[in-house]
Amino acid sequence: MKRNTGQNRNVTKNWRPATQAIRSGTMRSEFGETSEALFLTSGYSYDCAEDAAARFAGEQDGMTYSRLQNPTVRMLEERIAIMEGAEACRATASGMAAMTAALLCQLEAGDHVVASRALFGSCRWLTDSLLPKFGIETTVIDGREIENWEQAITPKTKVFFFETPANPTMEVIDLRSVCSLARAKGIVSVVDNAFATNMLQRPMEYGADVVAYSATKMMDGQGRVLAGAVCGTEEFIEGPLLAFIRNTGPTLSAFNAWVVLKGLETLDLRIRRQSGNALEVGKFLEQRVEKVLLPGLPSHPQHNLAMSQMEAAGPIFSLYVGGGRARAHALLNALNLIDISNNIGDSRSLMCHPASTTHYGLAEDSRLEIGITEDMLRINVGLEDPIDLIEDLDQALSSVGL
Ligand SMILES: *Cc1c(COP(=O)(O)O)cnc(C)c1O
Questions:
Q1: What pLDDT, in 10s, does the model give residues 219-239?
Q2: 3-state secondary structure of 69
Q3: 112-116 and 137-141 beta bridge pairing
Q4: What is the DSSP letter of 68?
Q5: What's the burial of 380, exposed, middle or buried (CB within 10 Å: 0-12/13-18/19+)?
Q6: Topology of 2-264 in CATH?
Q7: Is 378 close to ligand 1, i.e. is its CB under 6 Å away?
Q8: How far does residue 93's CA lie from ligand 1's centre (Å)?
Q9: Which of ligand 1's atoms lies nearest the C-alpha of 96?
Q10: 267-399: which CATH topology?
Q11: CATH 3.90.1150.10 domain position(s) in the chain
């Protein structure tokens, strides 16, 4: 019997997550390479004209054009689908391409969306600025309370859209109750799972219909490429989503897919170690600043809920240092080891000031409503030794009088 290279779903779906992240979806060529091959090709050739016609008609398996299929991208899509417990997945060129495709492919003028207010800045732009241009109305709510979702539903509500934990406010949304409500009302729930990834949190186990990713974050995990992915049923992914992607072209490059495949191999290791490092750094910061918002710490108002749906709290959290923008900026400027950077999910520790960077585009009242104040900082805790990180923060805090 041939060894399983990772292509047989009936086998790979039973592997544990760490195994799936390394092996599922692998397609070996005739050379038997151990690492996934990088197929830098835009097109494919056919043995005869009839084969070309059969492939376009969907009567013959095989690839036609890399906007639609590429073997390296296919390996990544299959791997993410298996890890997610989803029937299907399509990769995209960035997280925002994934979010845009996941929403626009199923919405039309007259539809209504309910979205949690605590969203990644560009996701809020989609709900607040892009969708309304096409006659799609959005109601933005505090997603922490199930009654708010219930009350926002109208006869036109088609989609619920949220992320948990949310960037950068670390609000946690109860996946089970929100996704069940959506199911009961025939509404499609779309969950942005970039923060936790499917290694720590699998929204489909709680009834989510569509799970979308910025794979730029923990999945690549080393700050190299932009990438995204959308997971769902075969009917959704190969139906409306594929139609949207095939004709608008937010396709992931084979090279970037290959980099993310390499990233996934170490996702389990990295995300657990970074979550542990984040807890250590968070405990230190709690002694020194006004407030730390890290779902993994008992001080987080939704700690129990977070820990009931996540295996670990992840590497990202926020802190309030008091003293407005002046002190927040001064603290960033005093760091020696930790970089000032708005990226997250990197193996390097990075810190930023959301009000003047990632959420600069959000109106001030909307920022304040969700707790993005001038004295808030966000940190991505990397893989460095947490003692070095704590020492760096210690001297930076002292230098601003904390
Ligand atoms: C980064 C991020 C995005 C956007 O992803 P890109 O890959 O940067 O386009 C969307 N949602 C969340 C929660 C993110 O952190």
A1: 999 999 999 999 999 999 999
A2: coil
A3: parallel
A4: T
A5: buried
A6: Aspartate Aminotransferase; domain 2 (3.40.640)
A7: no
A8: 11
A9: 9
A10: Aspartate Aminotransferase, domain 1 (3.90.1150)
A11: 267-399
